[in-house]
Amino acid sequence: MENIKDTSQVTIVEDLATVKFNLLEDKDIEQAQFIFSAIREYVKRNLQEKIDYGTIPYCGNKPILFKPGAEKLCRLFKLRPTFDLVDKIIDYQSPLFHYHFRCNLYRFGELVGQADGLASSKEKKFDRTDKRGVYDYSVVNTIMKMAQKRALVAAVLIVCGASEYFTQDLDD
Questions:
Q1: Domain of life, per the record (predicted)?
Q2: I need a surface site. Which of 23, 103, 122, 155 has the fewest CB within 10 A?
């Protein structure tokens, strides 16, 4: 079957019957099956519920990956995380503290994935204003670490293909 396109200067003939989308080879499928099986077995043997992952009432039955579990998966896959500060807002008058980090995951020096994480003092869990309206500034470092943690968990889920087993850390 031929598809002929006239571009007024050049006539392009495409043989649609010979176009193939050979995206995966058998060895790729076998390797993917092995990796997913290894993740399943590793989770069963090495990750502890309520420490590395867990469920949260009224948020579904899918386990949520916590930071310790993400760190263990990094060790399993020999991933090295680094963090880049993408954006920040530090306003002591408002008070508003917002951090946006990107986690880059490297394997043997090659960047294999990345994801972003954000955290803000406007989130209910970080609203530490007392009855007098005085903000507890000691939480600012926690907000920064939370953004890094969210980026790490998201990157690990993506790179390891672990979203089948876990969801993003909702518990934070």
A1: Bacteria
A2: 23
pLDDT tens track for 69-120: 999 999 999 999 999 999 999 999 989 999 999 999 999 999 999 999 999 9
CA R_g for the chain: 23
- pTM recorded for the entire structure: 0.78
Residue 137: strand, helix, or coil: helix
For domain 25-164, give the CATH number. Answer: 3.30.390
d(CA 155, CA 151): 6
Residue 117 structure tokens: 């994480």
Question: Residue 10: what residue type?
Answer: V
Where does the chain have alpha helices with state H?
Answer: 26-46, 67-76, 140-160
Q: For residue 3, what pLDDT band results from cuts at 50, 70 and 90? A: low
165: helix, strand or coil: coil
* Structure tokens given for 152: 């790490």
